[in-house]
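Q: Could you write out the predicted structure for this multi-component system? I'm mainly interested in how the pieces pack against one another.
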Amino acid sequence: MSPNQNVPAPPVQSSRARWTTRILGITAAVATAFTVWLGLWVTPPDQTQGDLVRLVYIHPGVAWVALYLAFALAAVASLLYLWPRTRSLFWDRLAAAAVEVGVVFNVCTLISGSIWGKPTWGVWWAWDARLTSTAVLLVLFLGYLALRRVPAEPEVRARRCAFVALFAAVDIPIVHFSVLWWKTLHQGATVLNPNLSPTIHGSMAWTLLLGFVALTLVFVWMLLVRYRIGVLEDWLGTGELDVALRERQAEGGSLDEDEAA
Amino acid sequence: MWRDSLLVAGKDLRIEARSRVGLSQVVPFGIVALVLFAFALGPDRALMTKGAPGLFWVAVLFCTVLAVQRSVSVESVDGARDGLRLSGLDPAGLFLGKSAAVAAQLVVLEVVLGAGVVLLYGASITAPWLIVSSCVLGTIGLAATGTLYGALSAGLRVRETLLPFLFLPIAAPVLLAGTRIWQAGLAGGTPSYGSPWLRLLVVFDAVYVALGIVVFGPIQESA
């Protein structure tokens, strides 16, 4: 039996969608390369921070994608999934893709922040309000991904995950304020806030801006690719079941033939 | 809704009264945790007194996980969960009832652990109203979020391992607020520092109780 008969055809992606993804990916790569070039070679080192300032071209952009774009998108998509009128697996897969990419960006935020913090503050990790709420956010959405790995019917999994995303999204402002107060009420104003040079201008400002655009493009591209993988995973899940059923049936069939012979 | 919640809370508490799982396992576990914290910190009395508020709330948080798991597992056999769903009870009442039962057990636990903190760690309470109100508000929040996540994880085979991971980060604000209020209410603290944290707990409670009342029905369907 040829494999084509066994496996149902994968869901087809329209050539327009394919090309959009491809062009986005190329644009993102070019923008990122340009940011790297500007950030590492063209822009001058900072007067006080020296070459460390070059992390500023990446770190805020990564944090913007992780903390605002990705998780806001995940929360909105989950809400739209739970809303009966807009319920569709599209929103579930979009939320899952946003969380997964967001977690990657969140980890990058923490890592790039740590690399900056060690020479500047003298420690890899400070219990600063922003750092702490970013870490809590990461743990909340790692829980989402853990729940997603639990095998279940796509609809059941989608509902469960949407609820978890909703609860986490509601928790974020509360965590943010509690962590903010936790620092400020206890020790006075935090001195560890990254005190960026206010006289950022010229090539530095443009590089910073380009960094934001490049990382947003990278996020959107990864989101699209991850969404497509989600579609294929679901197809594979149901496809495998069909194949297994057919194999068992085929076994039963050959058994009957043996008995007849 | 209220009548249903009383029925459900009564059922859960009757099961607890007859099985004594909470009293003979969860509360002793809390005491064990207090003793282990003391071992971890060493015999330094001043350090223990300083850490008492946080250690109390961490112990409460861990015990909440156990209480919630118990609250879920009493309905995991004999199709009890489906029975409850088919019983026609209002889902909101079900949520409030199960939360109330967990909360009632947590209150008993907190009294015991509070006494433990005072006796073992040498903490002395200067503003009892702060301590009591933080416990009441914290308990409501923990019971509500715990019950929500308990229902969400009810049908999962990996419930025992997944529930703490999902629930504990969500409860982080309760830990922060409870600890700060206790610091304000114990000897050496400034009682006026406690009031913003009490407001935070009120917001936390209101958000998750309201959320639970609205979404508990749909959550049960997906479990």
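A: Regarding packing and overall arrangement: Chain B touches chain A at residues 145, 148-149, 152, 156-158, 162, 165-166, 169-170, 172-173, 176-177, 180, 193, 196-197, 200, 203-204, 207-208, 211, 215, 218-219, 221-223 (CB under 8 Å).
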